[in-house]
Amino acid sequence: MNKNSISIVILAAGKGSRMKSPKAKVLHTLCGKGMLYYIIKTSRQISDDVTVVVAHQKGAVMTQVQRYFDDVHFVVQDAENFPGTGGAMKNIYPKNERVLVLNGDMPLVTPKSLEGFLKNKSEIVMSIFDLQNPDGYGRVIIKDGHVEKIVEQKDASATELKVSTVNAGIYAFSRKILEKYIPLLNNNNAQKEYYLTDIISIARADNVEITPLLVNEEHFKGVNSKKDLSDAETIMQERIKTSLMESGVIMQLPSTIYIEEGVVFEGECIIENGCRITGNSRIINSHIKAHSVVEDSLVKNSDVGPLAHLRPDSNIEDTHIGNFVEVKKSTLKGVKAGHLSYIGDATADEGTNIGAGVITCNYDGIKKHETIIGKNVFIGSDSQLVAPVIIEDDVMIAAGTTVTSGTIQKGSLAISRTKIRTIEDFFYKFFKK
Ligand code: UD1
Ligand code: MG
Fewer C-beta neighbours within 10 Å, C or N terminus of the chain? Predict the structure, then answer.
């Protein structure tokens, strides 16, 4: 694909009031990334000239985009004087003769699904699909085999509302068509907005060639509400998991697994049912057991779960993490933590065993402190390590010990227990048996 042959404009300036959210629509996320991330990623695979039109919450939108892409241009729409998708197309100066216009609320488009728009050289190419429930979309009015106009839902007559052929919201134009017709758009409609879609009827009156391309909803679905967002996320999840399984990841009951865009798997990995793996996690030759959560963490040659929680910045290598173990911002290498522990702001080294119920008390109410555990340390069950604390190599911590701040020297035993007291026959006296 010649990357320089078409310019792309992504419309992302709208409020998205149907989202019923204080957050601009395109900032909403699916599979861990904002809606715009996906459409820009697709666009950058096709073109070197990508413009994103912003206005509503423009600072936040631009920051989100710049987190992932440093090579897109921004144009700020004058949304006060020229609201609407047509208003968004003012002040656009594409480099190329052909311009692909994409609505920013279409995260499911892929380079392959856009091929038809790149090949066809009609003055105007537009996308249509037929829907059982066309609610919310602009209706496409076709007469004698020609597209006559697009009527927005709010402007449609009762007969027009019954039309099930709708505008999917993607168009390819020749640049001169945009230069000629965008200035002619007006806002004489129900929403008092400048509709890009009016370009169709104006151009048609001039006998401009308009080619409709039939597309599918799986790639061209517009996300306008939180229900749409969840439907789009389901489709995106399917894609992510299918591609991971094709590249060798084993998943048990994949319909119950949630994996965000950007998670990396290497080697042979098994993911059991109910797991959630997010952020920039990297899983290498590891087994994540049922209902575990892994966030922004590295798991290498290890097994985790069932029901474990790795919070951000956990580095787990050659380690066994068992059920009900929570790890946060900790590095564990060659460690066993089989049951019911909290390990936060800690490091632990080879051969160390962390018994059931061990807690790193990393927070003193004001600050977080570190726990450093050496090699071959045996930490007995139900011990608390009150950070900051250093436990050197070859140490034993007796079950039930509270280790307070300081260093436990190499090779020693730390024990803090009250002496046990037994009272004979107490049970029988108490229950009068
Ligand atoms: C739009 C189309 C409709 C089509 C549907 C497909 C218009 C007038 N209508 O409707 O025919 O069926 O997409 O999904 O184009 N935006 C701006 N500036 C604005 C307003 C919107 O940049 O002033 C952006 C939005 O951020 C969004 C995109 O344009 O990404 C589409 O806007 P939206 O409000 O979702 O339009 P729809 O009502 O879905
Ligand atoms: Mg929309």
Answer: C
User: Which ligand is closest to the CA of 108, given by its number?
Assistant: 1
Whether the CB-CB separation of 8 and 50 falls below 8 Å is answered with yes
Specify the 3-state DSSP secondary structure of 99: strand
Specify the 3-state DSSP secondary structure of 123: coil
Is residue 114 within 8 A of residue 120, CB to CB? The reply is: no
Domain range holding 62? 3-220
Same domain for 240 and 258? yes
- The structural domain count of the chain equals 2
Residue with CA nearest ligand 1 atom 29: 11
Percent of the chain exceeding pLDDT 90 equals 97
Catalytic residues: 339
Query: pLDDT (tens digit, 9 = 90+) per residue, 155-188?
Result: 999 999 999 999 999 999 999 999 999 999 999 9
Question: CATH number, domain at 82?
Answer: 3.90.550.10
Q: Ligand 1, residues 90, 103, 197: which to mutate, most atoms within 8 A of Cβ?
A: 103
Q: pLDDT tens-digit profile of 94-126?
A: 999 999 999 999 999 999 999 999 999 999 999
Same domain assignment for residues 182 and 235: no
Are 231 and 190 in the same domain?
Answer: no
The predicted model scores a pTM of: 0.94
**Binding site membership of 171 for ligand 1 (Cβ less than 6 Å):** no
Long-range contacts: 275-281, Cβ < 8 Å, 24+? 275/305, 278/32, 279/32, 279/312
Q: Which of 168, 188, 220 marks a domain boundary?
A: 220
